[in-house]
């Protein structure tokens, strides 16, 4: 009965009005869009005073970091891909829901050139998506990832099925990262590599 009452209320007001945000939430949305760009990392917005000794240490560290040699972006990315926990979020173009992305947490390992390699079940949705459209993205976070200030990278490219003569090297690299991956010998699993990054 209560469902019928709710449905009657929705029909009486119209679906748009029934699900439209209240004036309070519309006001909050307007405030969100009117905020200046940038990050506000403090929850209360109030700058905290630093004691003089801590300020001196932080200033010296900032000066040192400013003048320290940098390895460069490609090295930073390669390091993050190489030294992580071996899992990432892969986004594919959904075969079953055309026009929408599909996301999956997947295991991966870099090969000797740093290209991510994967082994996926033939039944998984991301396998079906990749066979229909090899374009995907792979979001990799550092081992220590706790929040937005921590290291991560999003690789965009295309994956290819590995040829028979490439599978043993891929298997060795994958098992080095995932020693318990017993499924690498399953016959219905496919080896992929992200080649076009």
Q: Your description of this structure?
A:
By secondary structure, the protein is of the alpha+beta class. Helix content is 38%, strand content 24%. It contains seven helices and seven strands, in the order αααααββββαββαβ. A seven-stranded antiparallel beta sheet has the order 2-1-5-6-7-4-3, sandwiched between helices. The protein is elongated and about 65 Å long. The chain starts with a helix and ends with a strand. Residues 1-26 have low confidence and may be disordered.
Biggest sheet features = 7 strands, antiparallel
Oligomer: single chain
Number of strands: 7
* Strand adjacency order, main sheet: 2-1-5-6-7-4-3
Could you spell the SSE succession in H and E letters? HHHHHEEEEHEEHE
- Taking all Cα atoms into account, the compactness measure Rg is 24 Å
Note poorly predicted spans.
Answer: 1-26
What would the keywords be for this entry?
197 residues; alpha+beta; seven-stranded antiparallel sheet; 7 helices; 38% helix; elongated; disordered N terminus
Describe what is shown at a glance:
By secondary structure, the chain is an alpha+beta fold.
Please outline the helices and strands.
Elements (H helix, E strand, L loop, with lengths): L1 H12 L1 H5 L3 H12 L17 H16 L5 H10 L4 E7 L7 E7 L1 E2 L5 E6 L3 H8 L2 E7 L10 E10 L5 H11 L11 E8 L1
Antiparallel strand pairs: 1-2, 1-5, 3-4, 4-7, 5-6, 6-7
